[in-house]
Amino acid sequence: MQTKTYTLGKTIVNYYIDDEENVSFFLCPQSKADLIREPWLEPEGDFDPAARYLHAWHLGRLAYVHIIGQSMVNPGFTMKSFDVKLRFLSQEVVKDGDRTTVETWMLTDYDCKLLHKLTYIEGLGGFACETVFVNASDKDVTIDMLSSFAMDNLVPFHMDDAPNTYQFHRFFGGWSKEGKHICQTIEELSLEKAWPMWQTCYSNEKFGSMGSYPTRRYFPTAVFEDKKTGVFWGAQMACNSTWQMELTRWDDALSFSGGLGDRDFCGWKKIVKAGEAFAAPTAYLAVSDEDLFDCCANLTDMLKPAWRAYGEKGIPTTFNEYCATWGTPTQEKMLQFCKELKPFGIKYLMIDAGWCNAGQEQSGNGEWLIDKSIFPDAKAMNAEIRANGMIPGIWIEFECTTAGSKMYEPEYDHMHLTRDGVVIDAMSRRTYWDLRRQDVIDYLDERVIKFLKDNDFGYLKVDYNNNIGAGVDGAESDAEGLRQHLEAVRNYFIRMKREIPDLIIENCASGGNRNEPTMMGVTAVSSFSDAHESVEIPYIAANLHNLMLPAQSAIWCVLHPEDDKERLVYSLAATFLGRVCLSGDVPKLADWQKAILKEAMEFYAKLENVICNGRTKIYGNRSSCQRYPEGLQVVCRKTEDEMLVVYHAFEDDMQDVSFTIPDGFKVKDRFYGDKITLCGDKIIVKDVEPFTAGAVLLGK
Fold it and tell me: What is the number of domains present in the chain?
């Protein structure tokens, strides 16, 4: 057995190469390196059907691939297999500025190779993992499974199968209930080792999201935990099409892997021509010796380079008129909002749906021509908005056409996505442009990019309100067609930013159905959810700290004249968990209500550093039910020298919360945070009332 060891940041990376030239790796916190054992070197016990435990350990793989023609050990169960050989060829460490990449080449059947790249960026907590399939032969081959990452050898801290030791953390998606955390033991997942541990007794948990809503059922983030040693291994897929993850029980160890949805999962296959290569989606990996929150923070760290490239300075606030007009915006209303909102320092003033067909927010979209009866002079309106220190924004769902538009009619079917030769029509009212076509790109250049330029809009909310489904025509498999189309969609986001460099783009898909790294990586901000006025808004907003950067999470805060002080504070304090997105009847608020709003925006203006650079932990006893939440939620986001504490009390069963903080912090500012006290080295939140909230900012 050969071991190659690298220390990257706080992590030890061990690559293991056995006598048959199989290769795998293991990520380990430096603090736990002394606990690593070598169970794969122990001889397997003689078969004894009466034995309660028999030692068995495979070294695992660095990656998994399946080429059509290779054997498949467990079809319909998992396409991962040890029978598909990957022979170690070479390894090189490449340094480029603050980046260190370990590049490993492997050889498989048919003269094909895999390149595995693990990249560490100084200052970030995780790793980028890339897997590239290279057809080095003189014939085309077809692959129908390729992993983005594989963390095998979980866990070499134990010399047996470690019963009652492991847990698996996942995060549900779902409309207006994004990010709910679920933790299950390996035993609850029925991933225990079976008695003789023959190959046919392997266990596997495969999950993911299918179609063009990559966070519809699950977010592409999961964490494997060893409770006894206190180590967490996390992975996040960067994929805006169908993705999958798998947790597999091989023997004494488990294998955690993920990539594009494979042929078993969604019918995917891909022809790789002779001499060409195909890259799996990037995955982000992390390990922590602290807790789940720290492991997830290490993963979301990896989103920062793209956010810094596509984002904007600070955390500007937004007013979106949707929950004030409910699909009936007008130029007159927008200018009234502009006048009323100026004292609150709002940066972006957004027109949402309904601007191109008066009173028809989801119908007749496709031409994207502004309705002159309600917006007689958009350019003049935007000039006035800019003169008042704000940037005008607008909503467009440019990937779709809807019933009532001429672009929805059969004359344009050839420009739309099809499945089995039939135009895909969601709910009999929404069809989808095929962005692989040049005529579609040309059309959108005219109706979207030119429209934004001509009218001087500086903010674009891109919405997307239905899932295409598992696949589309136009490639060697429907799932590959979907992948190609969604790659083209992402490329159009890049095109818009290139054509209008100052444009700020918001990523929205009925709220949070596209909040994954590839789409968040080409946009400045994402709609956290379509939860507009519900009491679970702070619950959802806190969930998402494990899954995305709060500096990109736009949180709805809808205000009404009938709101009492407690409700105003409750709603406004939720926005401190991300980006402020105000809406509602702000012009009708009483003076005392506007004073609370102004106080909230002044407090929020002090949170840039802690929101952009902090790390989050969530305390309290909030209930599992998000729709009717109970208990107390306390979110603490901390940098080295600042700390933000935000509490939300829900309906019932509020228990006092206290937690220890480092020495030297003092209260700098409060927003109705009298229930939060600093006592020595502890933060204490107690004696709260139902549906109240408050926040404090501490500093050194």
Answer: 2
Whether 699 maps to a domain, the answer reads no
How is residue 559 annotated by DSSP?
Answer: E
- With a cut of 90, say whether residue 500 has pLDDT above it: yes
- Tens digit of pLDDT for each residue in 657-671? 999 999 999 999 999
The chain-wide mean pLDDT, for the chain, equals: 96
In DSSP terms, 257 is beta-bridged to 150, 246
Phi then psi for 648, rounded to 5 degrees? -135, 125
| Number of C-beta neighbours around residue 391 at 10 A | 22
Residues of 642-655 as b/e, b for ≥16 C-beta within 10 angstroms? bbbbbbbbbeeebe
Cα 654 to Cα 652: distance, rounded to the nearest angstrom: 6
Give the Cα separation of 522 and 507 in Å (integer).
9
Domain boundary pick from 302, 333, 348: 302
Euclidean distance between CA atoms 520 and 547, whole angstroms: 11
Quote the percentage of the chain above a pLDDT of 70. 99
Q: Is residue 281 located within the same domain as residue 355?
A: no
Could you report the per-residue pLDDT of 329-358, keeping only the tens digit for each? 999 999 999 999 999 999 999 999 999 988
196 to each of 47, 59, 76, 365, 619, how far by Cα in Å? 8, 19, 22, 61, 43
* Angle of helix 565-574 versus helix 591-604 axis, rounded to 10: 20
Structure tokens at 432: 């989808």
Element at 482 (helix H, strand E): helix 478-499
Residue 631 lies in a domain: no
Q: Are residues 195 and 228 in the same domain?
A: yes
* H or E segment to which residue 237 belongs: strand 231-237
Cα separation of 78 and 204, whole Å?
Answer: 7
Give the separation between CA 270 and CA 603, rounded to whole angstroms.
52
331: three-class secondary structure by DSSP: helix
C-beta neighbour count of 562 within 10 angstroms: 9
| 247 and 142 share one domain | yes
- What's the CATH number where 39 sits? 2.70.98.60
CB-CB contact of 642 with 699 (8 Å) = yes
Residue 670 lies in a domain: no
Is residue 618 pLDDT above 80, yes or no?
yes
Q: Is the dihedral of CA 399, 404, 407, 413 positive or negative?
A: positive
Instruction: Write the DSSP string, 16-27.
Output: EE-TT--EEEEE
Measured distance CA(188)–CA(662) in Å, rounded: 37
Give this prediction's pTM. 0.97
- Residue 263 domain flag: yes
Radius of gyration of the chain (CA): 26
Q: Is residue 154 exposed (0-12), middle (13-18) or buried (19+ Cβ within 10 Å)?
A: buried
Residues 601, 547: Cα–Cα separation, whole Å: 25
8 A C-beta contact, residue 560 and residue 597:
no
Q: Which residues make beta-bridge pairs with 619?
A: 634
Range of the domain at 450: 317-607
In 241-370, beta strands by DSSP E: 243-249, 254-260, 270-272, 277-279, 283-288, 318-320, 348-351
Is 348 found in the same domain as 266?
no
Question: What are the CA-CA distances from residue 342 to residues 258, 494, 662 (Å)?
Answer: 48, 31, 39
